[in-house]
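ok so I'm stuck.
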Amino acid sequence: MSQDTGNPSLAETSSEDIPQPNGRYVRTLLVVVIGLGVLLVVGAIVVIGTVIKRLNNPETIPVKPGFGETEISIPASGQLLGVENGDTRIIVKLKTEDGPLLILLDPRKGEETGRVRLQAR
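replied:
not stuck anymore, here's the structure
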């Protein structure tokens, strides 16, 4: 004995009863979804690339301008030959008793970053 549950069986359902989606809307939706997916992937690549670039190049970290006055010691017998100015470094060229000396300065922080003594061989 079968009971009537109100659900038609598969044999009784025809394809005409189910509304078919409009092909134009399906294609438009497909293009929008693919475009947004590509945009999401490209955005993630740009963000990750920017983070990696900034981590590998610490000189691009912004520093507050106006560090005040700093003093750099030079040898008493040192004679100033010249100064070269750049975006990331200032080079002070000195002539001393021991030979030429280059003092490297960071213009953003106002600190001495190193000294290079040139020796003849």
